[in-house]
Specification:
Blueprint lengths: L15 E4 L12 H9 L4 E2 L2 E4 L5 E3 L22 E5 L2 E5 L7 H4 L13 H4 L10 H15 L4 E2 L2 E2 L2 H6 L5 H10 L8 E5 L3 H10 L6 E6 L15 H4 L2 H7 L5 E3 L20 H7 L3 E2 L26 H12 L5 E4 L2 H9 L2
Parallel strand pairs: 1-2, 1-13, 2-7, 3-8, 9-10, 10-11, 11-12
Antiparallel strand pairs: 3-4, 5-6
Helix pairs in contact: 1-4, 11-12
Length: about 350
Amino acid sequence: MSTPAATATPIASKVLVIGHRGASALRPEHTLASYAVAIEDGADVVEPDLVSTKDGVLVVRHENEIGGTTDVASHPEFAARRTTKTVDGVAITGWFTEDFTLAELKTLRARERLADIRKANAAFDGQFSVPTFDEMIEFVAAEASARRRVIGIIPEIKHSTYFRGTGLPMEDKVLATLAAHAYTRTAPVEIQSFEVGNLKYLRGKLGASHPNIRLLQLMEAGAEHPADDPSTTYAAMMSPAGLKAIAAYADAIGPSTRSIIPLGADGRLAAPTTLVRDAHTAGLEVHPYTFRPENHFLAADFRNAAGDATRNEAGSVAEIRAYLATGIDAFFTDDPALGRRAVDGR
């Protein structure tokens, strides 16, 4: 494994552990139970992905297609709603939140998305409902009060241009929801998106009057482009010039982990790129995604012989620490307890 010659320094005052969809390695993602475990295990921040219902309510799901994360397929009353849609240029078949009212979504129950790998999580199938963004904020606020510590929230606006095209734009609703809760009027909030135009719009709306709300530009590796801007690519956005442009409207970038330390042909960590250094030079924090504890997701350096789906705590902590050495300022993890251990040196 190639690692930096010396440990780089983050520009953030504290490296934050972000509970990716809660503690999604331990409970079905985007459920209040998942957020509860993440907070119990020491996450500094928890992440809800946001999509819209037919009646314009923000709900917490990774995608608007919910066949893989709910039991909708087992509801005969909704069988006729299975359809094929093109979302951000990709044809997807399933059931979509924008075709359901909130009342209808509340009849569904969450299911584990990665059931082949996270078999223990599948034991919780059917136990949890789909939370609204309001419910998630209220839950985090109650946990923060009970634990006497501030817990940040990092919502991702999913498929912004697509939802705007359906007549269900989300940006102003996100801001209105944050403003409606006393907790999110002061607690740390970081709004994230893979698109560009909505972040620029939010920067214009927020100005300097909401110092607790920051913006995070998510980025995918390779030549993919933002859904709302085919004139550029994420690779170009990761260049020094691209990062300087991002710094005009965002506070941080969220690249994949492998954009920071890629994998070699042998599946092991190769030499780090200059992305963290270049982003810091532009004044941007770096919050990469996503560390997962199972052997299936680890670089070959850190896997053990216990099987692809096996939870490998020591390997995950070691991998996170290799990335911490590059100077990242925060990171998304499916298992905040292991992230906490990596940061705190336990």
